[in-house]
Amino acid sequence: MDTDARHTRPTERDGSPAPSTGRGSRSRSVRVGAVAAAAALVLSLVHAFVAEPFRIPSDSMANTLRTGDRALVNKLAYRFGNLPRRGDVVVFDGTGSFDREPSEGTDYVKRVVAVGGDRVTCCDERGRIEVNGQPVNEAYLHPGDRPSAVPFDVEVPAGRLWVMGDHRSRSRDSRDHLGAPGGGTVPVDRVIGRVDWVVWPADRWTSLRGRHG
To answer: What ranges make up the beta strands (E) of the chain?
Structure first.
């Protein structure tokens, strides 16, 4: 089962008492309504352009991300000329690469193993993935997993990414789309953002920055 990232929708509950009548009450209600509308607008803008929580529904990125985790995706990470780097955990829209037709649930979370211009191969004599002839230290792999049971040798085109799940034996990723247009790679412009934090549950609160190997 693959790991597709799902947007979380917080439950809304209005626990405020019913407003009293009178001109003063109506003025306060208008002010409260204006503040609430402004807060909702700010929250919407933050979700759209800055950061957004995603729910992890499967274990293809375990143990880095587990089923039920809420991950905070930094949508500004690749703005202003910045590009995904090897080791980044990213959320991307799989339409046109992992999903041939537009549909619901096309957002995926995977780790960037190689970027445009890289040659990524599997595997060397010790069973390791190599990027540009150098073995990759994948300390993030799920315990007991091999780097890959599927051999491959791919030149990643410019502007695209080779991505894989950390739980290799449970992840459908670039390896599963080798025969598709793009050879299993994902366009950089389909990347929604970088997963920087696990924010829920509380005992899983952690930063993913710097945990590349």
So the answer is: 6-7, 51-55, 70-74, 89-93, 107-115, 119-122, 129-131, 134-135, 152-155, 160-164, 186-187, 191-200, 206-207
